[in-house]
Design goal:
The chain is of the alpha/beta class. 42% of the residues lie in helices and 20% in strands. The protein has a 6-stranded mixed beta sheet. A 5-stranded mixed beta sheet has the order 3-2-1-4-5, with helices on both faces. The radius of gyration is 21 Å and the shape is globular. The structure holds 5'-O-[(R)-(carboxyoxy)(hydroxy)phosphoryl]adenosine (KG4) and zinc ion. Zinc ion (ZN) binds next to helix 4.
């Protein structure tokens, strides 16, 4: 469909519980891309009964889904596999078995049609996902990565240039949402459900801008993020307000959810303020699953002097488009692919200023 000035890049994402396959047409002249077809197969229903992702089940499911999703993407686009110019695949960080199965599939497809392969860092892909909708965004910018496994702040000066400003020393923001949701009796993954309940509290006609409950403001003086103190406080608050025998009623549930969401959001906003003070950079990109949170978006967007950018909601969660785009942007910047080995832990920073924020 697109001209010969466009690279056809297939992006494959399997680092956790979403199988993402996407085909993009990437301009050879600049960073702009057109999404030809993107598919995400979520495994939420498979893992829900266990209350969290079961790594072996997730890995097996990816292997089952990948050929189906890839065939669908190619056939709906009227393309043969050998017409793909580049295959991009997540090689870390993530669950090892899941990464390996994605890499196995990608390398088999690449080898059988003689297509180059490009290994991608999943967190770098979340950071760069903002370029899907904003191809002309200027560097430098701050980025807040908030997902189920990561919470970190970086100053991004170019593709491949990341200065770490703050990272969580314990749980990630997504985990704080999910674990609190579990304590409230909400099904896995609880983040979006908790957020919905919180929003319905603030939409009540009687809402006054606060709740009856308070949670301690932890970790604002020390560098980095920490959610474990908050988690303990949340758990104490929930047990002081509920009993084992009676189901938590809707009014209490929404008020607790609102209080919890406010404290997680406030912690994130305050650290962003510190990062702005420290770097004097006034552009912020928020990415990762928690960047879909409506309240977080609203709070950051209302920060004075800060220009905020968020990926489209479907690109906040794990997806193949961000993987394809990252390979394209790195190739345009003359950067090499990652070594082709699964890397469950793989920080993106090239520099550190970590103790200051
Ligand atoms: O980036 P992601 O899709 O997967 C990882 O790489 O971890 O992030 C998933 C996380 C989960 O913890 C999920 O509960 C959280 O993002 N999340 C949310 C919302 N949507 C997803 N948390 C709060 N509010 C939301 N609307
Ligand atoms: Zn992710």
């Amino acid at each position: 469909m697109k001209t010969s000035h466009h690279r056809k890049v297939l992006g494959i994402e399997t680092s956790c519980d979403e199988t993402g396959v996407s085909l993009i047409y990437a301009s050879e002249q600049d960073s702009s891309v057109t999404i030809a077809k993107e598919l995400i197969h979520s495994q939420i229903s498979l893992h829900a009964e266990y209350g969290g992702v079961v790594p072996e089940l997730a890995a097996r499911e990816h292997l089952k889904n990948l050929p189906l999703l890839t065939d669908t993407v190619l056939s709906q686009e009227g393309l043969r596999a050998e017409e793909i110019d580049l295959i991009a695949v997540t090689v870390g960080p993530g669950l090892k078995g899941c990464l390996l199965n994605g890499m196995l599939f990608a390398s088999g497809l690449a080898a059988s049609h003689d297509i180059p392969l490009y290994g991608v860092n999943h967190i770098e892909a979340h950071v760069l996902s903002v370029f899907i909708e904003n191809p002309h965004l200027d560097f430098p910018f701050l980025t807040l990565v908030v997902s189920g496994g990561h919470t970190e702040l970086h100053l991004v000066t170019a593709v491949g240039e990341y200065t770490l400003l703050a990272r969580t020393i314990d749980d990630a923001a997504g985990e704080a949402f999910d674990k609190s949701a579990k304590l409230l009796g909400l099904a896995y993954p609880g983040g979006p459900a908790l957020s919905k309940h919180a929003d319905s509290f603030s939409e009540l006609p009687s809402f006054s801008g606060s709740s009856r409950f308070t949670l301690p403001r932890v970790m604002l003086k020390q560098p980095g993020f920490s959610f474990s103190g908050l988690k303990t406080a949340i758990s104490l608050l929930i047990s002081s307000e509920t009993t084992d025998d009676t189901a938590i009623d809707n009014a209490l549930l929404t008020e607790l959810a609102w209080t919890i969401q406010e404290s997680i959001v406030e912690l994130l906003v305050r650290k962003v303020r510190k990062a702005v003070q420290e770097t004097r950079c006034k552009t912020l990109v928020v990415c990762g699953g928690v960047s879909a949170n409506r309240r977080l978006r609203e709070a950051l967007s209302s920060e004075k002097l800060l220009s905020c950018h968020f990926p489209a909601t479907r690109h906040c969660v794990d997806n193949g488009t961000m993987i394809a785009l990252t390979a394209h942007l790195r190739r345009n910047a003359g950067l090499p692919p990652a070594p082709f080995e699964a890397m469950p832990r793989w920080p993106i920073e090239t520099h550190k200023l970590e103790e200051r924020v």
